Predict the structure of L-rhamnose isomerase.
Amino acid sequence: MNREARIQQAYENAKEVYGGYGVEVETILEKFDGIPVSIPCWQGDDIVGFEPKGAGASGGLTVTGNYPGRPGNPEEYRMDLEKSMSYIPGRIKVNLHSIYGENYEAGIDRDEYASRHFSNWIAWAKEKGVGLDMNATTFSHPYAESGLTISNPDENIRQFWIRHMQSVREISEDIGRELGQVCVFNTWVQDGMKDMPANRMKYRELMKQSFDEIFGKKQISTDYVYDALEPKLFAVGVESYTVGSNDFYLSYHGHARAKGIGNTILNLDMGHFHCEESAADKISAVMLFSDRFMAHITRGLRWDSDHVVINDEKTNDMMREIVRCGVLDQAFFGTDYFDASINRVAAWTIGTRATQRALLTAMLEPVRLLHRAEEDGDYTKRLMLMDEFRSLPANAVWEYYCLSKEKAVATEWLADLKQYEKDVMFKRNNS
């Protein structure tokens, strides 16, 4: 039996198994095919970007490794991105930082960045049929050296970062309008302190004022932009105090919605909580009070270490909870990691495919039967079904989906990437 016939036969068998539980696989695949995953620009070049001097990681960000072949300009970068896209079967978006624009004028600073610096990205996205998301870049800058940006008591520094985030938000609006789909404007800031502050309230009050100014400057349609608030427990160098904690962002989200300020939603990053906490458990709490949310899929080991996503238990838990809660249509999906110890294109590919496979597996789960057992108070049956459903043939459906999209099945893409690595990446002079 050849490859295509084997995959087709396994898929037909899987459809029969799922059909026995009342799951219409073809309907699931049709819906799954329309859900994009936003992939992180920072994985492609170790968060260097295309500012004249290059930003590089700082302010709680650490990129490990120096694998050869890093792209040194936008053309090389998009070449790598397209190579990864050739292995990814589903829809994608590219999650950009503001330092990934192009043609910055001499003497310009981040508070003056504008849509013209992202015109090449918008044109490329239109050509390739992908979406774009945006992030303000508040690290790796002289005004970020204190560890405080929009919570900085120095009014000049604080206003600089407010202007920067306002400009990136307006860039996001132009992207959303040009591409005809939502551009998520993500607002992670590294603000915090290494040791115990004497006045925790002061910096959170300043951050609240800053966000009011950022989101309040202009009302933007939710057809184009959602303002994602990304809380974090701690980061390197700010172990004792993070201004933008989960409690702060939850409270600010409620405040902003009540006052009609911006289009705020929560970004639940799997690596931004205590290692014993479950980010998945927070979805149902957040979505009682919000219309949308962002799920940042990452793999944190011991802390928010941003390892490449794999199809592990925590990733599957996150996806299962989204589906079981009935908020799939309200979720934005993105991956968040950076690893320079392995081939960067491979990292994009592994993490995105793993995220997609976990999402598809969750969508295929016979959730209706789990809900019914719980409603009947039959917790024995509920647990039995939860365990049995983990062994359903989701991978056969995934392989069929890859084949139907004319993308690599299983490990087939790696040999092609190794050749690209040899012929293109290893010949670059910027590694």
User: Anything to note?
Assistant: The chain has one domain: 35-366. The chain is about 45% helix and 10% strand.
